[in-house]
Design a protein that fits this description.
single chain, alpha+beta, two-stranded antiparallel ribbon, two-stranded antiparallel sheet, 3 helices, about 30% helix
């Protein structure tokens, strides 16, 4: 190939039009479906026919630290189990009353267990002494 052959015009290829049958339709734009929100623990438990209860929040009255409240969440299956266990006293008890009765019972048991442990320790003759050593730490002997 000679040097001047580089500057010669090359013949342009003839493009034959495509027949309507061979023309591809334009691509269909993808429709984005909204992403499904992940299922909550409550939804998963309900789908599996399992009881569900959870503490959503706890509030404490800063002016009176002996006062507080818990916000609970539960499913119907949990309430049904409580009814079977005898927590429904009146026929017109609401789900909230039934769950509240159960939660009060749980709290009572926690207090009683703590009290029994303290009573057992005080009657055992074992004395525990706690000394504050600073930085929020204590020495127990």
């Amino acid at each position: 190939m000679a040097f001047f052959d580089l500057f010669r015009k090359k013949p342009t290829p003839v493009v034959e039009p495509k027949s309507p049958e061979s023309v591809e339709p334009p691509p269909v734009p993808r429709v984005r479906t909204p992403k499904e929100e992940p299922k909550t623990a409550k939804q998963l438990a309900t789908e599996k026919n399992l009881p569900y209860v959870n503490i959503l929040s706890m509030d404490v009255d800063l002016d009176n630290l002996h006062q507080g409240a818990f916000e609970l969440d539960w499913n119907e299956i949990f309430v049904a189990r409580l009814v079977k266990a005898g927590y429904m006293i009146k026929k017109d008890d609401t789900d909230s009353e039934i769950v509240d009765r159960w939660f009060q019972n749980v709290c009572r048991h926690v207090v009683m267990e703590t009290w029994e442990q303290e009573e057992a320790i005080s009657k055992s003759g074992v004395w525990v002494r706690s000394t504050d050593i600073g930085d929020g730490r204590s020495e127990v002997s």
